[in-house]
Design brief:
Elements lengths: L2 E13 L3 H19 L2 E15 L6 H4 L2
Parallel strand pairs: 1-2
Amino acid sequence: MLGEARLRIAVELGYPSDIGAQCAAVRREVTERLRTWVGMDVSDLVVSVERLHSVQGRHTDQERVR
């Protein structure tokens, strides 16, 4: 291994959802990718939820045009 990394990541998530599970999935994915791509272990990874988006209120441009 090349060493250890300490990271802080901000994410935007859909709501309602299991926020804890989504943050855990981000931690797993980032940790695995760093280990695979760079050969580094992650000693500390903070996942901050920057914004929540309502899944029900979300519309694409195509849905708005009628």
